[in-house]
Design goal:
Blueprint lengths: L4 H4 L1 H25 L18 H21 L1 E2 L10 H16 L3 H5 L5 E6 L2 E6 H26 L6 H5 L7
Helix pairs in contact: 2-3, 2-4, 2-6, 3-4, 3-6
Length: 173
Amino acid sequence: MAIALYDISIACYRQALGGVAGFLEKGLAHCEQKKIDPDGIVQTRLYPDMLPFSFQIHSVAHHSLGAIKGVESGVFTPPKDLPELDYAGLQDKIAETLEALGAYTPAQVNAWEGRDMVFQIGDRKVPFTAEDFVLSFSLPNVHFHAATAYDILRIKGAPLGKRDFMGSLRTKA
């Protein structure tokens, strides 16, 4: 059985973002219960030379929805001018990203299979096929940034577990 581009991209992105939406909600509940200002988490870093929680959430959105838009257009670039968002704004960003990903159909995405595309950063251009871009660049970035955001909530004491990170499994019907 062949695996379609839709299955390795949109379906995986939606699962990962569903996990992020869930652990953000649990993180907010933890903050409310412990009387912690959730906006204080927005600039939290795991380590001083790492980017903050807000960047991690922006990156989950960019490496999913932005990545599929890159596959569609043939060019993916780093995000520019990320807006400063509070905790609720970051939750909204994930919800909006999930909604936008839900608008893509399997037929639409699968039509891009084998398409050439480029990751462009400044003058540097890295060539990919759509599938290799998703599997070797986009998905690892989604999972890295989601895990980093999850870890920041964990160091703040949010009672999260692996199932919170994983989102809804795509089990056999």
